[in-house]
C-alpha cells in the first residue's frame, strides 16, 4: 500500500510515521511518498523519520518530492495536511481579526474564514488532480478548517474525501476515563460540524453513562472540558461540547485573553516551529530528540489562552501524549484497505445522518467504516440552539465555497458578516479589505 502525504514537510508527520512503524498488520503501508512545496522542510522531517526508523525491520520506504503529479500517481491513500500561507499566514489571520476586536482562531470565526478563503482554491485543485491522476485513491483531509476543506474536496472526489480531527476522540477518551469505562467499547453519541460538535451520550453495556457524569460536579471538574466550561454550564447544556465551543460560549473572554496575550498562538508557533526547522539544517543536530522536545512544548501550550481565561490550569498529563490523530488515520486506512469494520467519528457528507442539513453538507458524526468507505450513522437531531449554530456556520462555509468558486468579494463579505462571532457587516467589509491586503492568496477576490 502506498500513502502520499501532501504537506509532507509538516511538523506532525513523525506522529503518522510512528504509527506506521508500529503497524504490523496485513496490507499495511509499505511506501510513503512525502510531497511539499518546500524541499527544506521535507529534508528536516526526513531526518526525524530516519531516526525513528533506525533498527525497525521493514520500515516503510520514504520518498521525497516537490512534484505534485508525481506524488499523486499510484497512491492508494492521500493525506492532505497543507497550510496555505504557512504559520506567517496564521499569525496574520489572528492579528487582523483581533485588531477588529473579533476572534482570529485558525478554524473558528473570522480567522477560520480567512484561512478557508485562501485554502479552498488550493484544496480544490488538489482534489481535481487526484481525481484525474489517482482516481481510486482515498483522500484523508487533515487540512484546517477541516470540515469546510473536506466539503470543498468532496465536490470533486465525492465520498472518497474524508476529513479527520482528533478533538472528538480526545473528548471521548477523557469522558470515558473520567467515568471509568473503556473507550474502545463505548458508543459516543457525538454530532455537529468540525470543531462545533456536542457529546450527548456515552453508551456502555447498554446504558447511557453521561447523565452520571453530568450529575456529579466533582467528576465534571476533573477533566479538560469540565474545567474549561464549568460544571454549571455543562449541566445547563446537558451535553459536553467540543473544546472549540469555548470560543463561542465564552467569546468575550477568549477574545480578551488573545488580545492581552504577549503572542497569539500562530505567532508563538511561527517562532517555535521556525527554530525547529532551522535547527534541522545544522549537520549533527539530534533530529528526533529536537522534534520531540518541540512537540512536547507545542502540546503543553495548546489552547493555553482559553485555559487561562477559564482559570482551568495546566493540561492533564494524559492529554499530553499524542495518539489522537495518527491513530484515527491508521484505523481509517486499515478499515478501508482491509475491510476491518470499525466505527470512527469523521467528517463526511451528511447523506441524511444529521437533520436539518442537506445531503452534501460535510458533518462530523460517527461513521461505520469498511472497504466501501465511511458511512455516516443516522443520529438524533441536535437541540434547537445547537442546530441554530450548526446551520449558521454551515451557511458561512457555503459563502466561503461560493466566494472561492466565483471570486466574488461580495460572497466573501457575506461569509464574515453572517458568522455568529462577527458582529457587524462593516467589520466584515474591513476584514475582507485587510485580509486581501495581507494575503497574496486572496488576490482572486474581485
Ligand atoms: C487539535 C485540533 C487540530 C489542530 C491541533 C493543533 O488537535 O483538533 O485541528 O490542528 O489541535 O493545534 P495547534 O494550535 O497546536 O496548531
Ligand atoms: Mn481539529
TrEMBL record:
Coiled coil: none annotated. SUPFAM superfamilies: LDH C-terminal domain-like (SSF56327), NAD(P)-binding Rossmann-fold domains (SSF51735). The active site is at 166 (proton donor), 244 (proton acceptor). Substrate binds at residues 90, 144. Pfam families: Glyco_hydro_4, Glyco_hydro_4C. The keyword Isomerase does not apply. Binds 1 NAD(+) per subunit. Its cofactor is NAD(+). Residues 190-422 form the Glycosyl hydrolase family 4 C-terminal domain. It comes from the Bacteria. This is 6-phospho-beta-glucosidase. It comes from Streptomyces jumonjinensis.
Amino acid at each position: 500500500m502506498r500513502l502520499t502525504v501532501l504537506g509532507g514537510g509538516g511538523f506532525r508527520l513523525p506522529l503518522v510515521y510512528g504509527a506506521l512503524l508500529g503497524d504490523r498488520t496485513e496490507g499495511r503501508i509499505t511506501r510513503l511518498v512525502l510531497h511539499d512545496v518546500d524541499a527544506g522542510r521535507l529534508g528536516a522531517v526526513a531526518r526525524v523519520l530516519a531516526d525513528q526508523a533506525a533498527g525497525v525491520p521493514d520500515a516503510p520506504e520514504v520518498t521525497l518530492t516537490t512534484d505534485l503529479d508525481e506524488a499523486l500517481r499510484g497512491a492508494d491513500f492521500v493525506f492532505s495536511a497543507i497550510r496555505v500561507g504557512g504559520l506567517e499566514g496564521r499569525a496574520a489571520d489572528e492579528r487582523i481579526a483581533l485588531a477588529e476586536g473579533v476572534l482570529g482562531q485558525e478554524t473558528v470565526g473570522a480567522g477560520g474564514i480567512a484561512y478557508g478563503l485562501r485554502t479552498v482554491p488550493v484544496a480544490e485543485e488538489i482534489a481535481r488532480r487526484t481525481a484525474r491522476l489517482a482516481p481510486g485513491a482515498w483522500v484523508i483531509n487533515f487540512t484546517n478548517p477541516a470540515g469546510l476543506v473536506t466539503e470543498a474536496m468532496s465536490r470533486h472526489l465525492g465520498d472518497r474525501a474524508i476529513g479527520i480531527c482528533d478533538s472528538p476522540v480526545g473528548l471521548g477518551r477523557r469522558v470515558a476515563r473520567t467515568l471509568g469505562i473503556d473507550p474502545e467499547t463505548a458508543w459516543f453519541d457525538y454530532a455537529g460540524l468540525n470543531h462545533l460538535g456536542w457529546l450527548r451520550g456515552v453508551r456502555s453495556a447498554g446504558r447511557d453513562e453521561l447523565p452520571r457524569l453530568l450529575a456529579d460536579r466533582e467528576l465534571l471538574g476533573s477533566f479538560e472540558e469540565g474545567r474549561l466550561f464549568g460544571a454549571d454550564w455543562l449541566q445547563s447544556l446537558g451535553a459536553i461540547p467540543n473544546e472549540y465551543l469555548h470560543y463561542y460560549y465564552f467569546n468575550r473572554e477568549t477574545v480578551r485573553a488573545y488580545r492581552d496575550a504577549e503572542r497569539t498562538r500562530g505567532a508563538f508557533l511561527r517562532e517555535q516551529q521556525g527554530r525547529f526547522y532551522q535547527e534541522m539544517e545544522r549537520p549533527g543536530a539530534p533530529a528526533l530528540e529536537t522534534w520531540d522536545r518541540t512537540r512536547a512544548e507545542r502540546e503543553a501550550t495548546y489552547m493555553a489562552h482559553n485555559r487561562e481565561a477559564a482559570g482551568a490550569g495546566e493540561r492533564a498529563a494524559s492529554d499530553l501524549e499524542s495518539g489522537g490523530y495518527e491513530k484515527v488515520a491508521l484505523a481509517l486506512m486499515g478499515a478501508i484497505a482491509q475491510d476491518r469494520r470499525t466505527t470512527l467519528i469523521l467528517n463526511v457528507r451528511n447523506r441524511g445522518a444529521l437533520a436539518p442539513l442537506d445531503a452534501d453538507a460535510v458533518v462530523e458524526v460517527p461513521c461505520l467504516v469498511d472497504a466501501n468507505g465511511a458511512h455516516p450513522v443516522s443520529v438524533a437531531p441536535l437541540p434547537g440552539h445547537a442546530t441554530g449554530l450548526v446551520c449558521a456556520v454551515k451557511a458561512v462555509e457555503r459563502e466561503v465555497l461560493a466566494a472561492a468558486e466565483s471570486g466574488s468579494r461580495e460572497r466573501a463579505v457575506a461569509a464574515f458578516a453572517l458568522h455568529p462571532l462577527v458582529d457587524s457587516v462593516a467589520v466584515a467589509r474591513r476584514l475582507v479589505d485587510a485580509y486581501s491586503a495581507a494575503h497574496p492568496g486572496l488576490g482572486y477576490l474581485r
